[in-house]
Amino acid sequence: MRFLGGILAIAVLLAIAAFAQGTTTGLEHDISKGTEQAPVLLVKLAGLVSSIAVLLVPIAFAIERLIKRDGLRIADGVLAAVLAHGITLATDLWVAQAAPDSIQEALTRAQGSGLTDPVHGYLAPVIAYMTAVGMARRPRWRVVLWVVLLLDAFAMLVAGYTTPFSIILTVLLGWTVAYGTLYAVGSPNVRPTGQTLLAGLRHVGFRPVTAMRTEDVPDGTDGGPAEQGDRGRRYLVTLEDGPPLDVTVVDREQQAHGFFYRLWRRLTLRSITTRRSSLQSLRQALEQEALLAYAAIAAGANAPKLIATSELGPDAVILVYEHLGGRSLDALEGTEITDAVVRGAWRQVKALQSRRIAHRRLTGDAILVDRSGKVILTDLRGGEIAAGDLVLRMDVAQLLVTMGLRVGAERAVSGALEVLGPDAVADCLPLLQPIALSRSTRATLRRLARERGEREREAVLEASAAARRARAEASAQANGTAGNTKPGPDTGTDAGTDTDRAAGAPEAGAAHRGPEDSRTTAAASGPPAVTAPAGPGTDQPAKSAPHAERRADKRAVEEALDAAREEDLLTQIRHQVLLIRPQAPVEPVRLERIRPRTLVSLIAGAVAAYFLLSQIAGNNLGADFSSAHWVWVAVAAAFSALSYVAAAMSLLGFVPERVPFPRTVLAQVAGSFVKIVAPAAVGGVALNTRFLQRSGVRPGLAVASVGAAQLFGLGAHILLLLTFGYLTGTEKTPSLSPSRTVIAGLLTVAVLVLVVTAIPFLRKFVSTRLRSLFAGVVPRMLDVLQRPVKLLTGIGGQLLLTFAFVMCLDASIRAFNDGHQPLSYASLAVVFLAGNALGSAAPTPGGVGAVEGALILGLIAAGVPKDVATASVLLYRILTLWLPVLPGWLAFSSLSRKGSL
């Protein structure tokens, strides 16, 4: 943070020097006028003292650190000084040769025949050294440091060797380089040693013998270390006389732990984060934890009793508690968590809430149970006094989930109702949502959700396999029955007649059904059922056999999925509470101030809008549109309308089930409205999936169909881009050599693949996503491959969709270029495909800004005049994005009323 802050401060300083010339000149004049009245003796004395101290103070501190065997800090300081010296030389060279005149005037003064140095080559390394070795964290050395810097700055200003902006830039450069070096090589270890801890305990009157580190996080607790890293290190200390002590050590490293996560929670959530979202000093952390410990005991809760506090140098503090013993809730076996333990935990929360104290971390490791069964609340450091109702209700919701994870929803809710009452428990239902829970609890719920999904998938696969086995057995049995009913030499036709009567067939022709008919009957209705009669030579049952098998598979999978489906813990808790309070509010409270996707969309939209406006700022769009050829505008509109038919074909080509084509086209028109309010790559997928589900396709198959269409579209998009890029590269050359752009693109893709496969985290992330994708898409693709007509429809729809958009862009260009097209169709296709890819990747709704900018730049790079390219792209986007919004809204409303969305 300090490194980034230093870079920002340097940028602001240079911006002021560049644009606020009057301010810089006036400041220099005022300082020069004020320093002229300084006594000459004082100026000379200050210069002498500062020049000596600048060298002696760092050496003295280095000797002290070496005596205390802290040579690593000295090495860090020397490295920072060397880097600062190099950056100083580079800055001086830049200011002298390439910087604007305003910056040069602000940082230098005329001296003889030349100019003074913009950055002082000896002072910046000294500042970097003293910052890197940690002199600023020691009060006496900090005073000496500032005195030396002020004396040196005063002497140089009075002597006319520098300017105020040069002094400030020198300090900022040294400071920034020091923290950049520490960030690169790692900060020194500020954890107090065991001897330091024992000395600190002796300082507050104890006589310790040993100190043993205790583990805060039980094995197997998801998300624990990330959330608990700022709670302090805990030690069990034995004394020469008296009971042992529980000691918590808090150092600067733990103060910074999780800072960005807390800051993000404060920015994105509504008044539910702790007040400690900023970096606290060690004394503030000490005072907060002590205050919460005393307040909890005063409220009547069982909490550790704080008996002493102390500092361990400038980098750590300790808090000494009476030893409690016991084990955390996470460490208890399931049988050890009795109803008395559950009620005891709720009584402690009730005691805290009676004094408006919020715990804020009611996870399993913060609840201790001693040998007598008494429940004790620990980890009060993150709590709040005088807490609001929302935060108190969050504590109830958190403890409900914590207990539900260990004893089940029914026992957790029962204990809460017995202690708090139904009203208090019912009030927490709107806060029973993952975002209101602790970080470790959310991680546990996600893990349980993955396990439920695995069990459901296993049940579906097992049911599908069982259905295939049953179908095979029925087929074998039908084959055997058919063989036994054939007329033999002695039975003649009487056997067939008896068989017909036994089977209940209405006519003798039913006896001529073959094995496929019997297999269809067994698969569709079971052995006792009878299919419709078929005469000799009739093959209708044989044609319907695959459909019956699929229906049987579908029914078996749905039954298995219904049987295996489990409610998540939050839903179970809600149901238990609603049994007592049916009218309790269950609508979740809006806790998010802003979602990450919304924030990214706003930033991307602002950047894209700025980029687009900069492209069209110099164009007279009114004159361009008034001179447009409206025949070509109509042609472009026709191709835009054709794209919706192509989109419907590309979707239905990957849906084996029967879905009405006109209604599918209407759904694609509705998608033009949805993509305005959602990112381009998200809105269409959600709408098509919902549409297929409402059209009778099972949810899993609907998702798989849309995924298959998207996956095939992605592959076709990349293939077409490479193909047209290759053709574009060979247009002006007789040989078939691809363009440099294609080669660069292929090399970039190859490098990305190598990076992903080389880094374990990225490799696991990509493989997990691909595995989940292909788990549903590949079987769906295999179903489509068995229907050539469907496959051709999907492929034709994808190609027709690309053709329609390319021709729409072509007609838009012709509308402003007197009917002429300056580009080949291969080049135009490359521009469209690249721009569309950027639009799909952009997080803005409909790719607004990204698509326009990419298409305009692509057309200009391909040789289209800027005014023609800008007007053409805007017309193209009006026809394909903005004009269809109203018809899309009407189609969306119509489909919603009819229950198709």
Number of strands: 10
How does the helix and strand content classify structurally? mainly alpha
State the helical fraction.
55-70%
Mean pLDDT: 75
Which regions have little confidence, pLDDT < 50, spanning 5+ residues? 216-229, 273-278, 486-543, 731-739
- Biggest sheet layout: 5 strands, antiparallel
As laid out across the biggest beta sheet, the strand order is 3-4-5-7-6
State the helix count: 35
Instruction: State the shape.
Output: flat
Strand content: under 5%
Distance between the termini: 48 Å
Task: Give a verbal description of the structure.
The protein is mainly α and 901 residues long. The chain is built from 35 helices and ten strands. A five-stranded antiparallel β-sheet has the order 3-4-5-7-6, with helices on both faces. A hairpin with a 5-residue loop joins strand 4 and strand 5 (245-251). Helix 16 (409-420) packs across helix 22, helix 25 (630-652) packs across helix 34 (866-882) and helix 33 (850-862) runs antiparallel to helix 34 (866-882). The longest helix has 46 residues, at 439-484.
